[in-house]
């Protein structure tokens, strides 16, 4: 992987008290690409994402965004620089309608100034959200909730978007639709980090992949060239990855 790196994680170690969750992890995310992070439950994916977003502070190592050290910045500052996240489980505001949920994503000064343009953008991407703009979010289907979470992340007008377990609990036809939208978002120039448990889908929709096992990066490479059997062995902790 070579090019212009928008985000870099260097020798990252993260602990919860005496428990170490991330061990010396290094990753580089090339601007304008889709990069997947693959791993089973407990692999350290969520801890890594929370560290990138400023929710957990590293014990050692460094995270840089566009050359700036953001390792110890507040989450609001990191979002302000251009990093946004669609969290696992969507985490929408149930008591607000769809439009209000979307506007919550445009709280930064620069995104607030162009919120009508951003609304138009996400409505074009997800027409169902425009159809249901006045409906309470609590009544949305699972797929629509995930679309809303993704659209809300786009409303901050980010340079890079992190998608955590987009497919969780969704029907295959809805998953394909959402991943096709991810491709469309990326084609417009946005860098995307996909965090998934489903390895075949991760490899199919990304340009470059990292595989994590027990808090460590054990494999990386161009997604099209990744040896599926070896990735599967790593995922299930077989042989040398156990």
State the main characteristics:
242 residues; alpha/beta; Rossmann fold; 6-stranded mixed sheet; 10 helices
Task: Outline the secondary-structure elements.
Elements: E1 5-16, E2 19-30, E3 34-38, H1 45-52, E4 60-65, E5 68-69, H2 75-81, E6 83-86, H3 98-104, H4 109-113, H5 115-125, H6 127-131, H7 142-154, E7 160-164, H8 172-187, E8 191-196, H9 199-205, E9 208-213, E10 216-222, H10 228-235
Parallel strand pairs: 3-8, 3-9, 6-7, 7-8
Antiparallel strand pairs: 1-2, 1-4, 4-5, 9-10
Short description:
The chain is an alpha/beta fold and 242 residues long. The protein contains ten helices and ten strands. The strands form two sheets. A six-stranded mixed beta sheet has the order 6-7-8-3-9-10, with helices on both faces. A four-stranded antiparallel beta sheet has the order 2-1-4-5, covered by helices on one side.
Characterize the largest beta sheet: strand count, sense, and whether it forms a barrel.
6 strands, mixed
The number of helical runs is: 10
Strand content is: 25-35%
Helical content stands at: 25-40%
The CATH topology annotation of the largest domain reads as Rossmann fold
The CATH architecture classification of the largest domain is 3-Layer(aba) Sandwich
Task: State the end-to-end CA separation.
Answer: 27 Å
| Outline type | globular
> Helices and strands: which structural class?
alpha/beta
Radius of gyration from CA coordinates: 18 Å
For the largest beta sheet, what order do the strands appear in spatially?
Answer: 6-7-8-3-9-10
Instruction: Identify the CATH class of the largest domain.
Output: Alpha Beta
The helix/strand order is EEEHEEHEHHHHHEHEHEEH
Oligomer: single chain
Indicate how many domains the architecture comprises.
2
CATH superfamily of the largest domain: P-loop containing nucleotide triphosphate hydrolases
């Amino acid at each position: 992987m070579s090019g212009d790196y928008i985000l870099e994680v260097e020798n990252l170690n993260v602990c919860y008290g005496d428990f170490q969750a991330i061990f010396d992890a290094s990753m580089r995310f090339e601007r304008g690409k889709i990069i997947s992070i693959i791993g089973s439950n407990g692999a350290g994916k969520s801890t890594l994402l929370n560290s990138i977003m400023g929710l957990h502070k590293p014990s050692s190592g460094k995270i840089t965004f566009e050359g700036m050290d953001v390792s110890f910045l507040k989450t609001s500052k990191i979002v302000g620089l251009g990093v946004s996240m669609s969290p696992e489980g969507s985490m929408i505001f149930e008591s607000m309608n769809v439009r209000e949920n979307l506007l919550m994503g445009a709280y930064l000064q620069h995104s607030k100034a162009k919120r009508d343009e951003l609304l138009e953008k996400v409505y074009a991407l997800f027409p169902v959200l425009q159809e249901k703009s006045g409906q309470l979010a609590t009544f949305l289907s699972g797929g629509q909730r995930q679309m809303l979470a993704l659209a809300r992340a786009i409303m901050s007008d980010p340079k890079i978007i992190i998608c955590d377990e987009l497919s969780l609990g969704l029907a295959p036809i809805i998953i394909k639709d959402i991943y096709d939208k991810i491709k469309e978002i990326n084609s417009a120039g946005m860098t995307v980090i996909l965090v998934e448990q489903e390895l075949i889908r991760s490899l199919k929709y990304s340009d470059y992949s990292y595989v994590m096992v027990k808090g460590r990066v054990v494999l990386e490479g161009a997604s099209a060239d990744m040896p599926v059997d070896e990735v599967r062995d790593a995922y299930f902790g077989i042989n040398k990855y156990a």
